[in-house]
Amino acid sequence: MSQGAGGSGSLLLLAGLLSALGPSPTSSIHVYTQREVHGTVGSHVTLSCSFWSSEWISEDISITWHFQAEGSRDSISIFHYAKGQPYIDDVGTFKERMEWVGNPHRKDGSIIIHNLDYTDNGTFTCDVKNPP
């Protein structure tokens, strides 16, 4: 990774997308994220996740963010929203650095990651489920 002017390293965070399909093609959810997100070590980035559903937004909607570190084959869950409550992982590399800024009723599942580090390079995936 190259160093930018002034000694700040830049990060490339890849935000992936995952569509959660329901039991029939008419009840699918379309999830939209940015293809690439760039940030600087020590700064913060918003990982946007918006979605569209042909169905009304259920009280049982769930949103999960996963992270796969650059060069790793494993993906870990770093955030979960369910039953109207955000659940931020209280262990791991994102502990105390993540902020929920989404609003499922506005079809938004976005999060902010604060105090970026080189180890945050990787792929972030937003998964939305809207059960009937």
The CATH topology assignment of one domain is: Immunoglobulin-like
Major beta-sheet overview: 6 strands, mixed
Order of helices and strands: EEEEEEEEEEE
Number of strands: 11
CATH superfamily heading of one domain: Immunoglobulins
Family: Belongs to the myelin P0 protein family.
Membrane topology: Single-pass type I membrane protein
GO biological process, one term: myelination
Main location: membrane
Please tell me about this protein's structure.
The chain has 132 residues and is mainly beta. The chain has a domain at 38-129: Immunoglobulins (Immunoglobulin-like). Helices cover 0% and strands 45% of the residues. The protein contains no helices and 11 strands. It has strands at 10-18, 29-33, 36-40, 45-47, 49-53, 62-69, 76-82, 85-88, 98-100, 111-113, 122-129. Strands 3-1-11-6-7-8 form a 6-stranded mixed β-sheet, with no helix packed on it. A hairpin with a 2-residue loop joins strand 7 and strand 8 (85-88). It is globular, with a radius of gyration of 15 Å. It starts with 9 loop residues before the first strand and ends with a strand. Residues 1-8 and 16-26 have low confidence and may be disordered.
